Amino acid sequence: MEEVVREVEEDGDGPERDPARIDALLSKLREIWMRDPDMRFGQLVYNLYWQMPETRKMGMTGIDMFYVEDDAFDLRLDEVIRESWQTPKP
Fold first, then answer.
1. Closest by alpha carbon to 70, among 41, 49, 46?
2. Cβ atoms of 29 and 77 closer than 8 Å
3. Radius of gyration of the chain from Cα atoms?
């Protein structure tokens, strides 16, 4: 695992990512997950990524979430939260 992290760090050409984004993303994930706490974590994350146009490629049956930037995922979480306010909890 350390090798993968090192490779990703070495390949990074852009600015470093803000560590504060982690708490913000996790807080939003928690808010969404609490609406359906019976859902498995992997299922939750997969479903959230699957709904993003950035994860779909022509001819693929699955999704590729590896290259989706955190800010794009953050925007998707905001959309889901906004939509959930409009829909009453079950």
1. 49
2. yes
3. 15
Q: 33, exposed or middle or buried, with CB in 10 Å at 0-12, 13-18, 19+?
A: middle
| Helix %, strand %, coil % of the chain (to 5) | 60, 0, 40
pLDDT digits (tens, 9 = 90+) for 12-35: 566 799 999 999 999 999 999 999
Check residue 14 and report its DSSP letter: S
Single-letter code of the amino acid located at 17: R
Distance between CA atoms of residues 12 and 32, nearest Å: 30
SS3 state at 65: coil
Is pLDDT larger for residue 56 or for residue 53?
A: 53
pLDDT tens, position by position, 30-55: 999 999 999 999 999 989 988 887 77
Domain boundaries, the chain: 2-86
